[in-house]
User: Fold this.
Amino acid sequence: MGISTRTSLLLMLLAATVLAGDDPIDLLIKSLGDKDPQVRVKAEEALLREGDRARDKLVAATRSPKLAISTTAQILLTKLPWSRSGDSAIATNILKEYGNRSEIERTGILHQISLSAPDGAQVLVRVLSQEKSPVVQWNVAMITVMDENWKAATNVIEEKNASPPLLLLLGRQRLASGDMHSAKPLIQRAFETGGDSTTDTTTSMLLTMYDLTASLDLHAEAAKLLERAIDRNEGDGFALNRGNLTEAWPANEVRAKVTWHRMKDAELRKDEKAIEQQTAELLGHQTTDMAIFLDVISTIQQSAPADKVDTYFQRVYARQREKIAAEPDDPVHQNDLAWLLARSGRKLEEALSNAEAAVKAKPAEPGFMDTLAETKFRLGQIDEAIEIETKALQLLPDDTFMKEQLERYKKAKASAKP
Assistant:
């Protein structure tokens, strides 16, 4: 059969497909793998004329087992216009040449649209649902600034069939609007079902994802993301930028965080064997992370030998003393040491000295006042603890933790009455 004959046949088949009510795009995509180059060219031209209507099926075609079809589909996707007739002029202009840009550039383009275009939320959700790169999808879903205005845009996302990054975007929008109840399972599902597709994201993005899962107590997912980040870094630690501060995470501390998250996950599942295993592993990490120590101390005291608990405490205590030695007038370090000692019930006179110094340096700091109240409580000075915590709550009346602290002190006072 000659070339012109095959091309004519393609056109006839397309006409018949239309008459039969079938979608001609399916036949055109199949023709991308035809051995006749002219048939392939005609199919490509026809698909480009279909424009945005062909996009979803071209995205699916990129996963075709036939190399000719998958490769050509990827090329055609870069040539399709990413804007639509109803898009704002700003979004339309920014989306020019979107498909020809690198992954980093496409991430930046979508971030720019979300910040500057009046229809940025709607356009971003639409483009992200059509974007074939998992790296772009995850990065944009994670860094997009969310607020209540995104509700209408994310409402078009179908939870049942959404990709993991779109689930993450939807979950973050719910979180931004204060609906943690429905946000948490969406974000958990995103990382549970899409964890493997985050393998190409940067270490920085993995750590951003980790921060989100850790803040929601999604400990199993947090452990996986953090372990992937440390493995990518070939066993080294991290230097994380936290606002204006650079926080060092040595490798052993990162590994300790992974173990701690697994321990917390085991506690949620009430898996006693796993708790025991992770506790033993945590003791072997030589961590000096105060937050981890205070979180696990009650569990460790019940299951580990007293000498190991003491060794663990001394290691964390020595690290806090080093910070004070380096910056003796820093009230944050003084407060942190006092909190460590008060919450662990050790060296309470030293805790009191440091807590009082921190409050003296910053008398209107509610967190420092809370530490002083806790120290007073541990020393048996319950009335003073109640008075100080009450003043702290007057400065920060919506703080849930301090409300619980005050209630705890009042209950202790009531139970102590003869």
In short: The radius of gyration is 29 Å. Strands lie at 238-242, 245-249. The chain is about 70% helix and 0% strand. The longest strand covers residues 238-242.
